[in-house]
Task: structure prediction
Amino acid sequence: MQQRIRVGVIGAGRIGKIHAENIVKGFPQVEVKAIADVYADKIKDWAVGLGIKHIYSDYKKIIEDKEIDTVIICSSTDTHAQITIEAAQTGKNIFCEKPIDYDVERIHQALAAVEKAGVKFQVGFNRRFDHNFKKVRELIANGSIGDIQVVKVISRDPAPPSPQYVKVSGGMFLDMTIHDFDMVRYLTGSEVVEVYANAAVLVDKAIGEAGDVDTALISLKFENGAIGMIDNCRQAVYGYDQRVEVLGTKGAISVANDTPTTVVVSTESSVTSDKPKYFFLERYMESFQEEMKDFFNSISNNTVTPVTGVDGLKPVLIGLAAKRSCEEGRPIRL
Amino acid sequence: MQQRIRVGVIGAGRIGKIHAENIVKGFPQVEVKAIADVYADKIKDWAVGLGIKHIYSDYKKIIEDKEIDTVIICSSTDTHAQITIEAAQTGKNIFCEKPIDYDVERIHQALAAVEKAGVKFQVGFNRRFDHNFKKVRELIANGSIGDIQVVKVISRDPAPPSPQYVKVSGGMFLDMTIHDFDMVRYLTGSEVVEVYANAAVLVDKAIGEAGDVDTALISLKFENGAIGMIDNCRQAVYGYDQRVEVLGTKGAISVANDTPTTVVVSTESSVTSDKPKYFFLERYMESFQEEMKDFFNSISNNTVTPVTGVDGLKPVLIGLAAKRSCEEGRPIRL
Amino acid sequence: MQQRIRVGVIGAGRIGKIHAENIVKGFPQVEVKAIADVYADKIKDWAVGLGIKHIYSDYKKIIEDKEIDTVIICSSTDTHAQITIEAAQTGKNIFCEKPIDYDVERIHQALAAVEKAGVKFQVGFNRRFDHNFKKVRELIANGSIGDIQVVKVISRDPAPPSPQYVKVSGGMFLDMTIHDFDMVRYLTGSEVVEVYANAAVLVDKAIGEAGDVDTALISLKFENGAIGMIDNCRQAVYGYDQRVEVLGTKGAISVANDTPTTVVVSTESSVTSDKPKYFFLERYMESFQEEMKDFFNSISNNTVTPVTGVDGLKPVLIGLAAKRSCEEGRPIRL
Amino acid sequence: MQQRIRVGVIGAGRIGKIHAENIVKGFPQVEVKAIADVYADKIKDWAVGLGIKHIYSDYKKIIEDKEIDTVIICSSTDTHAQITIEAAQTGKNIFCEKPIDYDVERIHQALAAVEKAGVKFQVGFNRRFDHNFKKVRELIANGSIGDIQVVKVISRDPAPPSPQYVKVSGGMFLDMTIHDFDMVRYLTGSEVVEVYANAAVLVDKAIGEAGDVDTALISLKFENGAIGMIDNCRQAVYGYDQRVEVLGTKGAISVANDTPTTVVVSTESSVTSDKPKYFFLERYMESFQEEMKDFFNSISNNTVTPVTGVDGLKPVLIGLAAKRSCEEGRPIRL
Result:
């Protein structure tokens, strides 16, 4: 039987709320004892409705609560590393939203604190827990398509962020592609050793003026000899495009988009079907529950978490290399 | 703002448990105050875990509880009508699993009690709340395909029931096709006026020996002039096949099966994709939540329920006609 | 090595021209020596361009030509039986367009003449030679899906015929469904023993006034115990809908429509793909060549033709039964 | 009305035979007067069967024949440029299989001769005439998806060539990718300005030992700002994979593989559908006819051919750049 887990959620923005609700509704053996958010007032009704007893504006109250053994870090990215360190030092298990940080040095500091404390640490790369991609990984891992030769990820958003957001986002490669860098590592089980980013501003000039790109084809070489490609765009007008294709020596695997329904309408003018599910909340909702399930299982069974600190670090390294490739117009070795 | 609703669940078999869990997790304004099951002992741990306070072996305790304003009837079919009558007489709103009864007279008695009491009454035809079929209905209702000419439902189970079950089930037309009779009424918005059942025993001889059929193509005529067909089989080895097709004067609509993933594997020998979701629990889980949502909304907003008493009666009438058509080898008028 | 075959084509309407062109271009060992059409003048340029030496207005010239060993009968239906008899009596092999006749007695006379003469005789049920349907038959025949339980054919035209045509067409069941009656016999390898036609006038009232129906769901029972359904409509606004589905004890087979391209366009408003290939000329062009190939092979190798006289007779019998079922509102035994 | 065209076919290997047969069967106004092949003896029976009067071992006989106004050059690649020059000098229109040559200087010489003579010249990039890709080009050209942002071509062969062939093939980029370089130019209507080849030996080590690669992801930048990617592999075990995807500011277009049938088989173990059409002969047969049609139309109507000399030159230049990119491990500007 599973031990009782007492959780504090830090940061109650969109993703913090999702995690809190999923835990309350889906994990009877887990109690969300407290939640902290700088705008504590605004979340009060919502938190009370969920039966959460303590609502703080200062996350330190959670760190200091000795009954709380686990934190879910959903605050702004620049606070992840610091909170991770403090939580680790007080012996708390940690689920940390991606990315750990944009600064490699601070990631190392956070991971060192985690290691020293011997607590569980999981990074929020939720797409690994998606029904489609998890199945692809299983098929690859059991040898269904032999040795991997080519891995391709298509990841396009339905609408671009504002140029203001772009300025503070760390850039497309760290903000958006980071999920895809994780995905290719997850699918291939191999490390990226070289990256070349063919990128452009084709969606919104203001994004270019903010110093970023909005469309990219990112070429990859893997340690195991395979090659890969990530196809990103900040705007696909038909919606959130989330696909992968893998070619191996014994076959190929592809994943199509999930759609709201399977309805097809045929009229005199056309045959039409559903666009992809709108955006990540619709598309990946289930995966947020699944990643929590695996996180709590790792705690209960004292096993390695499915997305480790290294898994949090590597995509940032690849993202920084992609950025440099784009700036220097050449492939970058990692 | 929604009023507080206090629910008693009667019958805690598979579907009773699903409803109880869905209500506890998904409807903060609804309290499951009590649950009754003839095997109260066996459900104790589960019910306590859900936070349900009262666990009875006698459903009358729920009927007698004046604080409980709503019952969810999930007990065996032969008790539906009686419990409906008692719940109505005590002023309780009623959600009743399908079918209300196999006896038309008893259905009329139950519906009369409901009408006299003026309580809400909804029958558990959950497939109306399925994402695919609801979309089909919307498209038809808004005129997307003009006037309906032909409606077709494919509904095949992954595995046949035991011959023992068959004997007490009311027969395939009342046990299985009843969902499809509801579906064609729902989709067309028109009544069935004639039915011809072309049926056979092609899955399991023991089903035939138990006096039933296991495979059928059921031809329908509708009040609005349209024609229709239901394709049933107690066993499709590839899984739970749940599709519809509708032809209208301005176009056609079709619905494919839902699958666990969109993964396609291509090898030297074949291109393979997922089989349909395994059975009704996997396929229709969401619809069980949706029907509850609409039921509670009908109570809160004092509106007509989306599946009325008449909607519970009509499929039974069609099912009995199909049975007779099968026995007499000719079309039967309703 | 194949013997030289000398062909006379009788009737140069749309289908006669197709056969003549296919033979000239595709069968070097076959010579189209002559062509006959009541409007000989109108086809002169076309026939000369194809290198056909003799162009007659009277088909008897072809019958009398002793060098011609094979006739392709593409004239109007009411002449098929008579020409068949004359061609058989002069020892010519015969390819006859469907139907042989609408009169069962005349079909018997024609087939008797064929049998007496011992000539080859093939009926133009070209859909048996279609890439999709041929594959379905192969899969069934080699046991891929076990014993057949349910066979379903969807066959809808893109546009209805004129009411004038309807009057002389023999009615939908003999004019249009006849192909589908052949298809179910071909796919199942079993005879239809009962038919029930659920039909209506839902496309064009003028068709009803001309004494015919335009929409039908035709229920079938087969000798081997299987059941089936044919879904016909004189007008599907989205185009020529030609599909089959077969359910067996070990699996199911389905065939989707052929489309001009595999292009899918995704925009902000929709995801659209191609409508089916427009009509039978586009959809079945290849099958017209294939049926000729098998016909000439039957002659060269002295083997049974793939669509025999009985195959020409049976669909007419089923069609007449369907007509009667429709008139009398009850299933008809064959 | 079209003028009479007299053709000489030079080279009767696989593709030469296809062109000769297509012309004989499909173009009544075109006469194949002569055919030349170094192994004239071996093609005699075939050529006589087609009704070709003159069969030569020396192509000069065709060049010298003043009645012949058009040549179809299907000989080995190293002879294309020389024969083009000679044919141009004798005023003959020229259809030349791809590539014109691997040597850029010789291509220039050939094109200069063509220009000086003012004859028609078309290169055999047949995929432009494929039903799928032609439709994609039309949709792009008419603005259906706005401005192109990303173009992607997948082109994988079902089986690798022999290492011996690889040695004389000019390498994968010039032998195989050349079609894809043409395709991206055709689809985008824009020139490639930079190429980066991420390539590896993942199919057959012997290909690597022969100095070539067998798997590649080729990144492209276009003059109009769009970016692109070509995905090549010498072996996809599931068959000939020929797809494109284009993303534009107003939508996206994708093309799936053509398959022999649309049959889907669902069993207890899986849902399977057809693999792609086997190889280029099956997949692109129709396009070989279509390119001839447009070529002869260009002659008859005195219009520009749909694949000009420049269209023959550019893919070679891109291929050479890709080769260099691969050797130097960096993007190459054109």
Notes: The CA atoms of residues 182 and 315 of chain A lie 6 Å apart.
